[in-house]
Amino acid sequence: MIAALCIFRFREDVSSALSAVQSYVSKAAEKNCDLILFPETCLTGLDITDDPEQDYMNTLSIDSKEIGELRDLAREHAIHVGFGFLELENESMYDSYLLLDDHGEDILHYRRISSSWRHFDSPEDIYCCGEETPVAETTFGRMSILLCGDLFHEEIVQSVANLSPDIVLHPAARGMRCDRTYQDAWDADELPFYLEQWAKFHAKVLSVNALSECHEDGDRYGGGAWIVDAKGDMVESMPLLSEGLLLYDLSGE
Predict the structure, then answer these.
(1) What is the pLDDT of residue 221?
(2) Across residues 86-102, what is the average pLDDT?
(3) DSSP category for residue 165
(4) Terminus-to-terminus CA distance in the chain, angstroms?
(5) Strand partners, 144
(6) What is the pLDDT of residues 35-83, one digit of tens each?
(7) How many H helices and E strands in the chain?
(8) Quick check: 161 and 142 in contact, CB under 8 A?
(9) How far apart are CA 35 and CA 138, in angstroms?
(10) Are the beta carbons of 201 and 207 closer than 8 angstroms?
(11) What CA–CA distance (Å, rounded) separates 25 from 242?
């Protein structure tokens, strides 16, 4: 049961992002992976303008052609695929994540519960948050999920822990300041908190972060991938600021 965590660099548009996702799925299949996980909003990015008509153009519905192509790809390669996107349902937008099985069918469909993905004054009837923490019985065990900043909210963390999952997915698009000490700052200031929170699930945790170039405001999405065992110990990781695949045998202890 080999999982691939894809540290994925945000692309400039949905078309180029979809092409890159498809390429990584094919590479993971060539390595006999059973599961590949991408970061939060890998298909659409996470740039919110607060102009709904403009932001609608950067969303995908659950039955969109693009997601249909990923369903076909999962089926073709007999691989489970998890990916994030800004989802459009009617006139509401969500920060969503979808996990497909190896037949291209939905296993987990999650909408981020915490509101920090949007601007604090964004209209809440358009830029919406989810309310549920789903769980599913899968080939890999009992699996649940939360997205990025959900980890900072104890009630969400406890809600996931109460589901008694074997595996928790934690895709992210977490940014930090651009400087030469990026990895050191993460290891010293951020990672201890993440490890403390991940340990509360008493489950294996698969976490992967998006990657980007430096933005004009001096921040960037830093990449990175981490696998934690049910005891809360780090078992595998990938350095920040590098794109690629981290492979891990889920059947191992």
Answers:
(1) 87
(2) 97
(3) -
(4) 12
(5) 135, 168
(6) 999 999 999 999 889 999 999 999 999 999 999 999 999 999 999 999 9
(7) 6, 14
(8) no
(9) 11
(10) no
(11) 18
Cα separation, 161 vs 165, whole angstroms: 7
The strand pairing partners of 35, in sequence order, are 3, 80
Beta bridge partners of 171: 208
Q: What is the pLDDT of residue 110?
A: 98
Q: Which residue has the tokens 């102009």?
A: 51
Residues 6 or more apart whose CB falls under 8 angstroms from that of 236 comprise 225, 226, 227, 246, 248
Calpha distance 220→178 (Å, rounded): 6
Average pLDDT, the chain: 94
CB 202: neighbour CB atoms within 10 A?
Answer: 14
Pairing of the two strands 175-177 and 141-145: unpaired
The DSSP result for 173-211, as a single string, is --EEE-STTHHHHIIIIIHHHHHHHHHTT-SEEEEEE-B
177 confidence band (pLDDT: 50, 70, 90)? confident
Distance CA 130, CA 149 (A): 13
Please state the pTM of the whole predicted model: 0.95
Q: 46: left (phi > 0), else alpha (psi -120 to 50), else beta?
A: alpha
Tokens found for residue 221 = 């999405």
For residue 151, the 8-state DSSP code is G
Eight-state DSSP code of residue 54 = H
Residue 141 φ/ψ, nearest 5 degrees = 120, -175
CB atoms within 10 A of CB 138: 16
Q: Return the SS3 of 79.
A: coil
Element (H, E) at 111: strand 106-111
